[in-house]
Design brief:
2 domains; three-stranded antiparallel β-sheet; elongated; binds zinc ion; alpha+beta
């Protein structure tokens, strides 16, 4: 993807603010090559894109009353997270957040 002197389509200019933000947040890096300048996403940005491409399932927004929490066994209001019913305290635990 080398740069050229062809005019940039008007539509592409709509992304200028987004592209400036990528630069401002150091999410892209410039690579000087023999055939010109090339811009690539940083490894961190690439990893994050992969994560966003496969989002962790959100906890259900529906609350369940009258069940025990599958985490602490407390009788309280729970929410379905993956295949478990968890209270708010157990949902906040890293292992349950990661499990989705
Ligand atoms: Zn719990």
């Amino acid at each position: 993807m080398s740069t050229s002197n062809e005019p940039i389509p008007v539509l592409a200019r709509q992304f200028d603010p987004l592209l400036r933000e990528l630069m401002a947040f150091s999410l892209v890096q410039k690579e000087e090559r023999a055939d010109g300048v090339s811009w690539v996403l940083t490894p961190t940005a690439q990893r994050r894109l992969s994560e966003l491409d496969h989002p962790i399932p959100e906890a259900s927004s529906m609350f369940v009353v009258g069940h025990r929490c599958d985490g602490c066994r407390e009788h309280t209001v729970t929410r379905r997270v993956g295949d478990q019913l968890l209270c708010a305290r157990c949902q906040a635990l890293p292992e349950h957040r990661a499990a989705g």
